[in-house]
Protein: peroxidase
Amino acid sequence: LHFHDCFVEGCDGSILIKHNVNDDERFAPGNAGVGGFDVVDEAKSVLERICPRVVSCADIVALAARDAVATAKGPFYEVPTGRRDGQIAAMSNAAHLPDVEDSI
Structure:
């Protein structure tokens, strides 16, 4: 999720933005297998009750990625916080993401 967010417009949480149409960044072909939206939404809900308007969705995604790496026995690393959430999430902005079928 973090890679897919950062690849488009930087690490701004824009992959989480939901509009009423299916033109959001999350629906781009390169984001086809991305999940975890519900986990971030739940974390944001809890944080908003405790400390409203303090922690951005972009920071939650970055911190969750760090914690997932550490939980999988990977290295723990510091994550600077203070990111601002993006306001734009168009599918066309994610057009250059590697597709799930692309070879590495």
Q: What stands out?
A: The chain has one domain: 2-94. Residues 2-94 form one domain. Residues 67 and 76 are 8 Å apart (CA to CA).
